[in-house]
Write a structure and sequence with these properties.
54% helix; globular; binds adenosine-5'-tetraphosphate; Rossmann fold; 2 domains
Amino acid sequence: MKKILTGLQPTGVITLGNYLGAIKQMVKYQNDFDSYIFIADLHSITVFQDPKTLRENIKSLVAIYLACGIDPDKNTIFIQSENEYHTNISWLLECTAYFGEMSRMTQFKDKSSKNANFSVGLFTYPVLMASDILAYDADLVPVGIDQKQHVEIARDIAIRFNKKYGDTFKVPDVMINDKGTKIMDLVTPTKKMSKSSENPKGVIRLLDEPEVIRKKIMSATTDSESCIKYDMENKPGISNLINIYSSITGLDKEEVIEKFKDSNYGNFKKEVADVVVDELSKIQNRYNEIINSYEIDKILDEGIKKTRDVAKAKYELMKDRMGLGR
Ligand code: AQP
């Protein structure tokens, strides 16, 4: 059975973008793959996280996975920092990765430009991500299109390592959601919707109250035309709402446009709000049932037990291939 693996950072309550870009795919494919999903807490500390909030976010993210439909019987769920072999592997891979290729990563360029004192971890983040993927010989990595570049670098690192030291890693493929959609910020639709965005009005969080979600969608930035047309360059706001509607309902963009061709922006936004609220309310109800359950620890204990042995074996193989130790 082929393996898929993905991880999300507990940098805040996850967004509609994270859900549609990554989690929904994991749910869709969990019957057909050996699926691994983790909490990328080591990645999250590449920018400062308040320790108390981080710990709360970690637990909340596990509950969100489960509430979204990630089935613990079909997925291995674990916390990245509990498996020390990810960082061990990462160092060995760092020594085969190039400064030039890391410097070209768009996420690094974006995040480092916001702060003069960014961490070295922010720069080497893609190598840790490569370790997460390569440790388990994942065949496919379901991510939003914004993370495609990082999976490509993991491929390059794997190919280079295999060439230098002999066959050690499976070369993974990226798996972008059917619609290949990047969900954009509702206020500034030229920028992606992000957990760590400064303006909360542009971001729909999975645990936002229905009324808050409605308000954010109704006030989403659009344009002065009054025609529902897909044009990401000239009509990014309306195009983003088309993408959201399409990703939630499963309709193609063309079908969405046809359905709303006679609607004005107000009516269209209301319909978008309805489908988002409907989908997220179900998740929220399940979340409230799960968040205080003892099951969470049990699931995480099982996850770490399974993944530590797998990652350790890969680390030992790498050390052997590289001539490390005795
Ligand atoms: N706007 C988006 N549209 C589609 N997919 C998205 N993803 C993130 N934003 C969008 C996908 O969600 C997964 C989560 O990735 P992450 O938590 O490791 O970090 P990220 O990509 O950096 O997500 P954020 O929300 O922007 O977090 P912060 O603000 O902390 O940097 C990935 O699969 C990503 O593609």
